[in-house]
Each structure stands twice: as structure tokens, then as C-alpha cells.
Specification:
The complex is a heterotrimer. Chain A is α/β, with parallel strands linked by helices. Chain A has helices at about 15-20, 70-80, 90-95, 150-160, 205-220, and strands at about 1-5, 30-35, 45-50, 85, 100-105, 110-120, 135-140, 145-150, 165, 180, 190. A nine-stranded mixed sheet of chain A has the order 2-1-3-4-11-10-9-6-7, sandwiched between helices. In chain A, strands 5-8 form a two-stranded antiparallel sheet. In chain A, helix 2 links the parallel strand 3 (about 45-50) and strand 4 (about 85). The N and C termini of chain A lie close together (about 10 Å). In chain B, strands 2-1-3 form a three-stranded antiparallel sheet, covered by helices on one side. The radius of gyration of chain B is 16 Å and the shape is elongated. By secondary structure, chain C is of the alpha+beta class. In chain C, helix 7 (about 105-120) packs parallel to helix 8, helix 17 crosses helix 22 and helix 20 (about 470-490) runs parallel beside helix 21 (about 510-530). The radius of gyration of chain C is 26 Å and the shape is globular. Chain C starts with 11 loop residues before the first helix and ends in a 6-residue tail after the last helix. Classes of the chains: A alpha/beta, B alpha+beta, C alpha+beta. Chains in contact: A-B, A-C, B-C.
């Protein structure tokens, strides 16, 4: 399975994602550069890692969302390609319109880094075979992780089962405690917690997310 | 009364955010862009009998909290009843 | 200054205004056989400052043991480097950013982090960890909360964005820092032993390249500023503050490491304090070469900057590097890939002089050594006359106090607090190496670049200003001892020390005495343990309106281990454990938190750290870590045994824990519960392991005392002769401990 990990200027979890995914059997990681414009068709999965692309200036993810590679990512997603965004990657996916809603400043206390408990929401290939309500311990590390969305879009999202993860407790003021979502077609997913930091140290629940990724790609193939 | 305050970095202070945004605009093809400076706009609603009182009050707010005089300047953009 | 032209000939008055002494000015004029012009005077003024030249302190720093078989680079470079085996080494250093943080806490702390990170990656090392040591004034002082908020946010925002985890730290509150907070930042990087770079301008004919952010008028004269005492009026007349840009730093870091991996440069240095001046002169000095620079080529952000301003600007995120002409094009490409521009501003020349042109005119022509080697300053030193009074403790008054009251007095100290409100603002996990939690005695990082060997690094910062003020020698010695213990608690062995020596004005003979004694204390302890001092920084003039800070040596220490052993926690891992004290049953009251809280002044003679017993304790720790059974372990420091035991319960993830402690018959109660001699260690383990732990202690030749147990009863209970003498609800205590720092944010 071939996974592409994109590096934007200011990405800082690109190395961690590549390392963590690279530990999995049968996974080959390709590093992608934000200025690349070549087609991504040969990849089985594209990961937008966490970090502070463009210093989080203006709005988080805003400037990365207009970088050259994002046109290719959009095209890839429109043909059903699987795209996964973690933390800043999630913010970029929202800014680029691949996912609904937006991520804004945490309600209180600026940046929060700690291990939190989330639960699996609507069933999706991103979490199968974990059932709805399964709890996972994963680290978060963000200053702008409060998910906001208008009520109409939210009811659409609920109808189509797009809520992938919720925090167990209200952490950052996120709407309906949302920690991660998918698009309607469920081939694009974004989440604030970091599975790549919990795949071999401390909590190992990140592995459950990685295993689900592997599984969905294998089933597709 | 409603007051609008514009806060910006002093000219001599480096604005990394503005700098990065300027570069991004240029990359998008806006070659006319020479510089970008990013500030903040703060709207304060307050009670005051006279505009002049409000103006003084706003000045105090800026000095005490809203503005960091070490790196920022401010301008009272508008004030109306 | 702006209106004075660069080439105007200087005067003694101007020299004095720029903090040069008459002697120094006359020395310069004599050596040059002319008077320097204004631009040149600016160079001397910053390079002769205490901050850049160490002119008062260098003599004492020579005392440090700096060599060892692992040492690849000792003091004198951007950072020291220690070999960790398997072809890898770590570069680390700690540096102060006290004065800028006082002027603008957020930017001051942020740029402090930026500067120390650049010191690491200029050595070729990828930064993988940050720590910080913060000293703030009395929490009731009206300025303290905003300083705490600003500094913590500044550190977090910078480190988080660059993607280097902040893994440990220390926060201390004391009224002596009311006007002079201390912000000391530590960074560590990992480098292959074959890929180390240094700040050398070698190779005549090589080009000098400027990379990174453009130059503005920010912080012109920062170096001289941090070598002067503050007066409260100066608080108003603030110089232009440097603004940090972690985004540019991240690009600079990646581009520089990429260029280094292709061996595209010869040497590189950060433009830190005294900016272009210090980087150019120091690089030429190390290589024994000279430089010719065209100042018109320096990329600027502002217009009409004079040579003086270009030379002394402290704009952040800029580097000076030297490269062979044949590699220049490729070097440019690498930096441009990362949206950075590399500009050639000069070349390496022979002759040991630095020449600088502006508008086609030579504005600077100076011999390198005259600039980098100012005359040493011999400062008189004298022990404080009131040391005897400081050491006086009225033990009778203490004996009369109730245990309840004594417990309350130490428990209420601000420094005894849950650090979570601070540490959760720092990304402690980016990099995917952090094994422990930030509140542990030391942070533990795995070195994933060395596969299959379980190589771990442990990192800690330590210092006890109260002890240093009462007895500087012991303060230095104890900081090393505590740091070494902290690393050993995490199963590692110390491999190197960096230090940040924060002191008041060296123009006061007592400060010089404090300094010399502190260096002696650090040296004695390092020698006893065989740990080299590989880098460091001196910050003097930490006083405002004649109020000096306590002598504050901060120690950053790094430990190394290799092997399958588990890293043991400091938090209780079960609700049914035996609790033992390993080390002296009684600690000293002199210099303890109890003495300070009880008498409302820091007092008493701190007890000397017995280095022989320290070595025995380290041996014990290296033995117990190889055992298979689980145990929790924590050292007893500030506040003594009771507070240490409470921390072990508070940090635990288990709810409803209780602690029962029995005071042994033969001990002094205060010394047992609140004494602070090093080393004393608490170990908690399953009852079945009791004989084994006792045997290990006996074999190591250190005292073992069974002192109590951990249970499920939710209470802290202290017993004496079978009777309860103190009882507190642990959950209620924890709530207070949790809340203590919340108020700041």
C-alpha cells in the first residue's frame, strides 16, 4: 500500500506520520512536497499531517489550502481517492472545502496538549471495525481545534453520518464535542487528535486508526 | 456608545504574519503587492454621557489592556452614540 | 544615534554613553593608533559587553571540568556536543533571555526559544527537545501574573510552531525576581557524529552568505542592554523589541539541515546578540581568518539603515554562513525551495581583519582579535558580611510550632503546585519520542534513529536559588547532585551539563564572590561524578533599582541509557504499596522551604551534600532499575518528605489513594518530614519486594528506612509512636494543589 504524506512549509508532524505509518507492514510512504503538481493517482492514501503550515498566520490552513498540490489533492478526492487530515491537516481540508465547517481558536486557555478520550461516532470506513461508542485514548495538541459549523450543514452531516469522532468531555468548545468528521462520500476524513503519536509509545490506540486505514484500502483493492 | 479601535504593529516592528501573507499573495500572482501589515479591529460598546468622556475612557482602555505599547500603536477609528 | 554618520570619529563621551569604560576606550585607541569611528565604536561597545565577552566571568569559568571521553565539543561554540554511541551525538545548551522577557514577556520568551534552537541547528543537529526554567516574582505582586502568562505563551507558541517538544521545566516564585524575572531556555539536538558543523569562517576566497529574515532596526543594542542594570525609568524608554517568527525559523531549520546534508557549507552561525557583528567577528576569530563584507548587500526591511544599525540589529531568524563558491548555486536552490533567500554579502580573506564597505566606502576596518578579546576585568570579590545572620535559625521557635501549622506552611507555598496549566500549553509530544510526562523528575526521550537498541535520553533542569543565596557553593553543588539523581531515577546516567548562571551586577564584590563560589560548587560536584560542563551562558546585571536577584545557577543535564528496562514513574502505580526512604532519615532545616515559610525569610545554613553518599545512591539506582518488579520512585527536594509523598499521589492516575507515614522513633520530626538534604529518595513497591529493596540499599551502603504505606483510604495520615499526629483529606489537598497556578491563566 502506498501512502503519500504531504509537507507544507511549517508542517511539523510530517516526519512523525511517515515514521509511524512506515512501521506498518506492507506500507510504503512517499513524501510529497507542497509545490508538487504531478498526479497522485498511484497512491492509495494521502495524509495531510499536523503542524503550523504558514505559521498559522491569517487563518489556520488558509495559505496551505491554496498551495499547488491542493489542486491535485482535490482532483484525487473527486475521483474517490482517500484523504486523511490530522490536526493542521484537518484545518487545511476545511479551508480547501474538502470538508465542511471550520476550526477556530479554542474556547479557553490557548493551546492544549494532553491525552484525551474520544469515542467513535458514525460508522465509516475510517473506523471500521470499531463500533460506534468505542473509546480511544489519543493525544491532542492544538490551539485552534474548536469545530464550528452552521446548523443546516450540521443536520445534513448528521443525516449522512459524517461525524467520525467526538470528545468524551468538552475540551475546546467544539460544536457537539466534534473531534473528527468525514465528507458525505466518506473518502475524506479529518480529525484533531494525533493517532501517529499513539501508535507505539504511551497509549497504543492510534494503531486502531492505522489498522482501519489499512483495512479500508485493502478492501478497496 | 460604540467605538471602533484599530490596533497595528508600530512601523519599526516586524510583522511576520503580514510578511507571510504578502508572500502568499505574490505567489498567487498578485504582483502588485508590495507589503502587508495585519492589525486588529476592536469594537467596544460603552456607556458615556459625552463623546469626549468616551474618548478618554477608550484611551485608558488601550493603555491599560488593549494595546501593548511596546510593539503596538492604535487609532480610534470612529466613535458614535 | 541615527543622525550621527557612521564615519564620524568617536569621542570618549560617546564611548561612555555606549557603556565602554575610559580604560577600554583608551585601550582601543592605543591598539588602533587612532580613534574608532561611530560604526566601529558600536562594534566595540557590543563585543566588549559582558554578554558577548564574558570579561568578568571567563576567569572563573575556566574552573569547570570540560573534558571527557564522550565530549566532541566543549564550551566556546554555539553549543556543546556529547557522543551517545552508534554514530550519533547530542548537541545541547541553555541560555538566558531575562532582560528581553522583562521588557516584553511574550516576544522576549519566544525569541529566547528561537535563539537557543538556532544555536543547536547551526551545529548540524536537529532540535528534538526544549526545556525551560522560569523564575518569577512574588505571585501577589501585581506584575507577576501577566509576566507568567506572557512568558509561558511565548515559549509555547514558538516551540509548538517550530515543532520541537517542550518536555520538562521548572517554575520558581520569589520576591527577589519581582523586577527581574528569569527565562532560561534549554534545547537539545541530535546529530550524526560525521555531520557536525561549527561557526568557522575557514577557507580564504570562500563566500559569506546571509540567509533568513531581513534586517530591521529591532533590538539595536540588545547586547549592551543586557549588560546593564535596569532602572525603573528605563522600563518606559524601551528599545525596539525583536519579534519572533517561528514560521521563518522552521523554514530556516529545514533548509539549513538540508543544505548541511549535502555538505554545501563550511561554517555557520546564528546572528544572535549583537547580530551581524558577533557572528562575523566570532566566525573569523575561530578560523583565524578575516572577512570583507559589503553592507549594502545585507537584505533590509527598513530604509536608510546606517552601518551602525545594520551591524547591531538583533532582528530574529537570520544566519551567517560560509560556503565554497562552487556550492553557491546549489545552496541558493535549497534555501529557495524553502522560500528563503541566500544573499552573498562578502568573502573570507586573510590577514585577521574584518573590513566592511557601505556606499562604496570602507566604514569598518578592525583587527579581529582586538574585537573578540577585550581586556579582562579584574573585579574585587567579598563574602557578604551578614552571612552569619542569614544562617541563624531559632530552632526553639520551630520546636514550639505544631506539626499541623508546619505542614500548612510548606503546603501553601506557590511553587508547590500542579504545573498542568503551564505544561499543557506546550506541545510535549511532537516528534513522537516523548516517553514520560512533563511533570516527572526528568523527561525521557527515545532515540528512534538508533533502531533496536532502546537508546534513551533523559533531560532535567535544576536549581535552588534559596540555597544559593544562603551558601552559593552548596547551591551549585546541590543543583548538580539533584539533577544527576533526577536522571538516575529515570534509569539513565549523566553524560553532560549545560548551565545558565544568572547573577546580579559584577560591580558588587558580593556578586563576584557568589559567582566564584557557585562555579566552585558546580565543579566539585561534576568532578565527583565525572560529568563535563559542555556549554553554558552567563547573565549578569540582573538587578533593578539596586535590588539584586538571588544568585541563580540553573543546571541543564542530560542522561543516557541503553537497554530493555522500563522507565519507572514517580507516581504511585498501585493503591497497595510499601513506602521507604532511601538515604538519610533526617534532612537539613537550613535553607529549607519550611524555614523560609516559618520565619518569613530565607534562613539557615544549608546542609552540605555528601558527594560520596551521592555516588552510592546513584549506584543503588543503577542496580534497582535492572530488577523486574514495578516501583514508583521520586526524590525529596523542595519542602521535604511529605510534599514529595503528596506529589507521588497527586500525579497518580489512580483515585482515592491514601498515604500513611510513621515517624521513626529516633529522628527529629521536622528534619524527617521537612528537611532537604540531598540525596533522599522515596520508593514505593509491593510488600513482597521489601526485603529486596532493603538489601539493594544495604549493598550500596545507604540507609533504608521503612516509613509507611500507600492505601485506598483517601487520607494523608502521619503517625508518631502509633498515634495520629496529622490527618488530611488527600482529595481536598489535591484540589488546592490543582488550583494554585490556574489563577494565572
Amino acid at each position: 500500500m502506498r501512502v503519500g504524506v504531504i509537507t507544507f512549509p511549517g508542517s511539523n508532524c510530517d516526519e512523525d506520520c511517515s515514521f509511524s505509518l512506515g512501521q506498518l507492514e506492507g506500507v510504503e510512504v512517499s513524501r510529497l512536497w507542497h509545490k508538487d503538481t504531478a498526479s497522485l493517482g498511484e497512491l492509495d492514501l494521502i495524509v495531510l499531517p499536523g503542524g503550523f503550515s504558514y505559521g498559522d498566520y491569517l487563518r489556520t490552513g488558509a495559505m496551505a489550502a491554496i498551495s499547488p498540490i491542493m489542486s491535485a489533492v482535490k482532483e484525487y478526492a473527486s475521483r474517490g481517492g482517500r484523504v486523511f487530515g490530522i490536526c493542521n491537516g484537518f484545518q487545511i481540508l476545511c479551508e480547501s472545502g474538502l470538508l465542511p465547517g471550520a476550526l477556530v481558536k479554542n474556547q479557553k486557555l490557548g493551546f492544549i496538549c494532553k491525552e484525551v478520550t474520544i469515542e467513535v461516532g458514525d460508522p465509516s470506513p475510517w473506523t471500521a471495525p470499531l463500533s460506534t461508542g468505542t473509546q480511544l485514548k489519543l493525544p491532542i495538541a492544538h490551539g485552534e481545534g474548536r469545530f464550528v459549523v452552521d446548523p443546516t450543514t450540521y443536520s445534513e452531516m448528521k443525516k449522512h453520518g459524517q461525524i467520525a469522532f467526538r470528545y468524551l468531555e468538552d475540551l475546546n468548545g467544539s460544536f457537539e464535542k466534534i473531534a473528527g468528521i468525514t465528507n458525505r462520500e466518506k473518502n475524506v476524513c479529518g480529525m484533531m487528535p494525533h493517532p501517529e503519536r499513539a501508535a507505539d509509545l504511551k497509549s497504543r490506540d492510534g494503531m486502531k486508526i492505522w489498522n482501519a486505514l489499512l483495512r479500508q484500502v485493502r478492501e478497496k483493492a | 456608545m460604540k467605538a471602533r479601535i484599530h490596533i497595528f504593529y508600530k512601523d519599526s516592528v516586524f510583522d511576520p504574519q503580514g510578511n507571510t501573507v504578502a508572500a502568499s499573495l505574490q505567489r498567487l500572482g498578485f504582483n502588485t503587492v508590495k507589503d502587508v501589515r495585519i492589525g486588529k479591529v476592536i469594537d467596544v460598546t460603552l456607556e458615556a454621557k459625552r463623546i469626549e468622556d468616551a474618548r478618554i475612557e477608550i484611551g485608558k482602555m488601550c493603555e491599560k489592556l488593549l494595546v501593548n505599547p511596546v510593539i503596538e500603536s492604535y487609532r480610534l477609528e470612529s466613535i458614535e452614540a | 544615534m541615527k543622525w550621527i554618520s557612521d564615519t564620524v570619529i568617536s569621542t570618549l563621551e560617546l564611548a561612555k554613553e555606549l557603556s565602554l569604560s575610559r580604560e577600554e576606550y583608551e585601550y582601543i585607541c592605543g591598539k588602533l593608533a587612532r580613534k574608532p569611528n561611530v560604526a566601529e565604536l558600536g562594534i566595540f561597545s557590543s563585543m566588549y559587553s559582558e554578554h558577548c565577552s564574558y570579561k568578568s566571568s571567563r576567569k572563573y569559568l575556566k574552573r569547570f571540568p570540560t573534558s571527557g571521553k564522550r565530549v566532541l565539543q566543549g564550551p566556546g561554540e554555539n553549543a556543546g556536543i556529547v557522543d551517545i554511541g552508534h554514530g550519533y551525538a547530542v548537541a545541547f545548551k541553555m541560555e538566558s533571555h531575562n532582560h528581553p522577557s522583562f521588557i516584553e514577556p511574550y516576544q522576549g520568551a519566544a525569541t529566547g526559544v528561537g535563539g537557543i534552537l538556532r544555536d543547536i541547528f547551526t551545529m548540524g543537529a536537529r532540535p528534538i527537545a526544549l526545556m525551560d526554567s522560569l523564575c518569577f516574582g512574588d505571585p501577589r505582586n501585581s506584575k507577576t501574573p501577566s509576566l507568567v502568562r506572557g512568558v509561558v505563551k511565548g515559549i509555547g507558541d514558538y516551540g509548538n510552531a517550530v515543532g520541537v517538544p517542550t518536555v520538562a521545566g521548572q517554575t520558581f516564585f520569589h520576591s527577589c525576581y519581582n523586577q527581574n524575572p528569569l527565562v532560561n531556555a534549554f534545547a537539545l539536538g541530535l546529530v550524526k557524529t560525521t555531520d557536525i558543523y561549527r561557526g568557522n569562517a575557514t577557507g580564504i576566497g570562500n563566500v559569506v552568505v546571509y540567509v533568513g529574515a531581513k534586517t530591521g532596526r529591532d533590538g539595536v543594542h540588545g547586547a549592551t542592554m543586557s549588560s546593564k542594570e535596569f532602572s525603573s525609568e528605563e522600563e518606559l524608554a524601551r528599545p525596539t523589541v525583536q519579534v519572533g517568527d517561528p514560521f521563518t525559523e522552521k523554514l530556516l531549520l529545514e533548509a539549513t539541515l538540508e543544505a548541511m546534508s549535502e555538505k554545501l557549507m563550511v561554517g555557520i552561525q546564528d546572528m544572535g546578540a549583537a547580530g551581524l557583528t558577533s557572528s562575523s567577528f566570532e566566525m573569523a576569530h575561530r578560523a583565524g581568518t578575516g572577512l570583507s563584507l559589503d553592507l549594502d548587500k545585507v537584505p533590509t526591511r527598513e530604509t536608510e539603515m546606517s552601518a551602525y544599525e545594520l551591524l547591531l540589529s538583533e532582528s530574529q531568524e537570520r544566519m551567517l554562513l560560509v560556503c565554497e563558491p562552487k556550492n553557491l548555486d546549489r545552496l541558493r536552490q535549497v534555501y529557495e525551495k524553502w522560500d528563503l533567500h541566500a544573499e552573498v554579502i562578502g568573502e573570507v580573506i586573510g590577514g585577521g581583519r574584518v573590513l566592511m564597505q557601505k556606499n562604496g566606502m570602507t566604514v569598518v576596518d578592525l583587527p579581529v582579535e582586538l574585537v573578540t578579546d577585550p581586556p579582562k576585568v579584574e573585579r574585587p570579590l567579598m563574602a557578604p558580611s551578614d552571612l552569619k545572620q542569614r544562617w541563624f535559625v531559632d530552632r526553639n521557635k520551630l520546636l514550639l510550632g505544631s506539626l499541623e501549622k508546619k505542614f500548612e506552611s510548606v503546603f501553601e507555598a506557590t511553587s508547590f503546585a500542579n504545573p498542568e496549566p503551564i505544561i499543557q500549553q506546550y506541545d510535549s509530544m511532537v516528534g513522537n519520542r516523548t516517553e514520560g510526562d512533563s511533570f516527572e523528575d526528568a523527561a525521557v526521550l527515545r532515540v528512534r534513529e538508533i533502531p533496536g537498541k532502546n537508546v534513551r535520553l533523559a533531560l532535567t533542569v535544576d536549581g535552588n536559588p534559596r540555597v544559593s543565596w544562603l551558601w552559593p557553593l552548596e547551591g551549585g553543588r546541590r543543583a548538580i547532585a539533584e539533577a544527576a539523581i533526577n536522571l538516575a531515577l529515570k534509569g539513565t546516567q549523566s553524560i553532560g551539563v549545560t548551565d545558565c548562571l544568572n547573577f546580579a551586577s559584577p560591580e558588587n564584590p558580593e556578586t563576584v564572590w557568589q559567582f566564584s563560589e557557585t562555579v566552585e560548587g558546580i565543579s566539585i560536584a561534576c568532578e565527583a561524578l565525572g560529568i563535563p560542563v559542555i556549554s553554558g551562558n552567563v547573565s549578569l546585571y540582573n538587578e533593578t533599582d539596586g535590588k539584586p536577584i538571588y544568585p541563580t545557577p540553573m543546571i541543564g543535564m542530560v542522561g543516557l541509557s541503553e537497554g530493555k528496562e522500563k522507565v519507572r514513574p514517580s507516581a504511585f502505580h498501585s493503591s497497595s504499596l510499601d513506602l521507604a526512604l532511601v538515604g538519610l532519615p533526617e534532612g537539613g532545616i537550613g535553607g529549607s522551604l519550611l524555614a523560609s515559610q516559618w520565619f518569613q525569610r530565607d534562613c539557615g545554613q544549608p546542609e552540605e551534600t555528601d558527594l560520596k553518599s551521592l555516588v552510592r545512591t546513584l549506584n543503588f539506582l543503577s542496580k534497582i532499575k535492572t530488577k523486574k518488579f514495578d516501583y514508583a520512585i521520586h526524590d525529596i527536594s523542595d519542602g521535604g518528605l511529605l510534599l514529595a509523598a503528596l506529589e507521588m499521589a497527586f500525579y497518580s492516575r489512580l483515585n482515592g489513594l491514601g498515604i500513611e507515614i510513621s515517624i521513626p522513633r529516633e529522628v527529629d520530626v521536622d528534619a524527617f518530614l521537612f528537611g532537604e538534604t540531598v540525596p533522599r529518595i522515596l520508593v514505593a513497591y509491593d510488600t513482597t519486594e521489601s526485603t529486596e529493596v532493603e538489601m539493594l540499599a544495604n549493598q550500596a551502603g545507604i540507609k533504608f528506612t521503612a516509613i509507611g504505606s500507600v492505601n485506598e483510604q483517601g487520607q494523608l495520615v502521619v503517625k508518631q509512636g502509633g498515634a495520629k499526629v496529622l490527618q488530611r483529606d488527600l482529595a481536598q489537598l489535591k484540589t488546592k494543589w490543582d488550583q494554585r497556578l490556574r489563577g494565572f491563566f
